[in-house]
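Schema walk-through. Below, the input block comes first and the output block second. Nothing else is stored per chain. Lengths vary across the set, and this one has 353 residues.
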Amino acid sequence: MKPSEKTKPVLFIGPVSPPISGPGIKNRNMIDEMKKMGINIYVINTINWKKRIFVFLFKIVFNKYDRVILSVSANGRWLTTPILWVKSLLFQDFKYVVIPAGGGLYKDLTDSNILKQNLELLFLSKADVIFAQTKELTHNLKKIKRLNKIMYFPNFKKKVVIEKKDVNNKSFRIVFASRVKKTKGVELAIEAINDLIIEENIKITFDIYGPIQKGYEENFLEFINRYKFVDYKGILEPETISDVISAYNLFLFPTYWENEGFPGVLLDAYIAELPVVASDWCYNSEIVKNKENGYIFKPRDKNDLKKKILYCYNNPEILKQMSYRNKEEAKAFFSDIVVGNLVDELNYMDWNI
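--- output ---
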């Protein structure tokens, strides 16, 4: 940027926690990091936008900003990208980028009906960049010629250093920390651990943290009450997750939720120096490198999950080596590095922020 040029403010549109959600935490961390860099940023929080839809739309249509970062889910894109597309046609200096929540964008652009595909491609075509969460998603989106530019922009966490807690050796302690719903695999995990306790006569405890999906509370609590080794521990603040879960032996992520992208909880586990056992689902195998910093099992396959957990139980020295690798792995995903790269890229494209 030339010395005579003034920096431009940025409009950020997306869900910002609280309440706690993966995209909301990520967006809050991104905004905080950009403010640290001295960027003037105005936020339109999309949480509960349906309750104030006219005010929400008015703010997007009539704001004065010509630099926009859109970080929303598929529903949010359908509502906002048509407005941003029109603005890009009306105002020559108007620029916007899209950061899709989760990993479902490629599927949305290729598996939906033709009219829907073409409309979304049209509204995304004027975006300076679409920032994709994983390398595989980045590669796939680059195949779509109508999109302008695709760049890899992984999930990230605030830079934090924790002291790894001593683990209680009386039992093998496993933890899950994410949104609690059936498609995250919590019931599968409980059944697998229960089989191991009975068949192998070993001591395992399983603690679950995270907000319970609305409508699933009663079924979930009724299900876990059948098992003495399971404990639901409530919701952790984002700043404390890694510190709390560092007192465990293993992090379990048995998801089969269709829209997984780059789950932030995997980074929480790495910061906590925890090996991870994760399902080979969506992009998990890109993030959890099998036999290096964790183990991948076949999705929804209880027997394969049991094998991986039992192997971890029987090989504490291997888990220690993985713990060290994960501590080092996490450093590449601290927000100052990842968000700094994003800002550098935007300024390279003359955003002048």
